[in-house]
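Suppose you are handed a protein chain with no further information: no name, no annotation, nothing but its sequence. What can you learn? This example shows the usual starting point.
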Amino acid sequence: MSGVAAAGVAGHRTPEQSDPFSLAGRVALVTGSTQGIGEATARVLARAGAHVVVSSRHQAECDRVARELRALGLSAEGVACHIGRMDDIASMAAHLGKRHGGLDILVNNAVLSPLRRIADTDLGLFTKTVEVDLRGYWYLAAEAARLMSVRGDGGGGAIVNMASVAALHPDRGLALYSTLKTALIGMSRAFAQEYGPAGIRVNTVMPGLIRTRLADKYDDAEQARVIARTPLCRLGEPEEIARVVLFLVSPASSFVTGASLVADGGLSIGLF
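A reasonable first move is to predict its three-dimensional structure. Written in structure tokens, the prediction is:
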């Protein structure tokens, strides 16, 4: 590889770090982080040294999780944001700019996951789900990219959009959810291309069935069916997905962007 190519955009080289997974000094926003994968991600990123902005629709729940993290000696604050509301996205961006001077990491994780067949998906549900699962991700990521760009330290930033293995293999009753998770993969690739010159990396995580409230929508027989098709023969744990996110937002993945990382225990190769 030539010296010019190795140096990358504008001659930038990523400095070596003693701990490539350290997030010390970074500000990270994790949406939907008062339960499940989001809460586990907030905890993992805080343990890695980030100041975590815990966010969901309800301020009391945000405060609870942030308080629990601070009790562990970690850095966190709670800021409510309903990503299906454009005013909330604007308010969050204003808060991050005023209080922190920008943003380093965004984990787009908040989600609606209606269990509904196509014929039973009315326009109201369709619109509400798109507002959260796609429009909200798009505009919050756009605001995050702007906040990352104003940092002025040349450090870029990292965005992770939480999709699902359902984007590759739709399941019955999750048609709308699966469709929007597929759209997130394309969105992440488009953002990665457009914001790459600014040093902003954008990637997607595709979990399998994880022990969360979504998994609780499956009865015991359905869970057994999924486990039987999973080579690792179990459901995943939220923290296992959180550690995948840590990799993608840390310097350890400094040359990874536009990628879609499957973390499903092998479900997607064991389906057939």
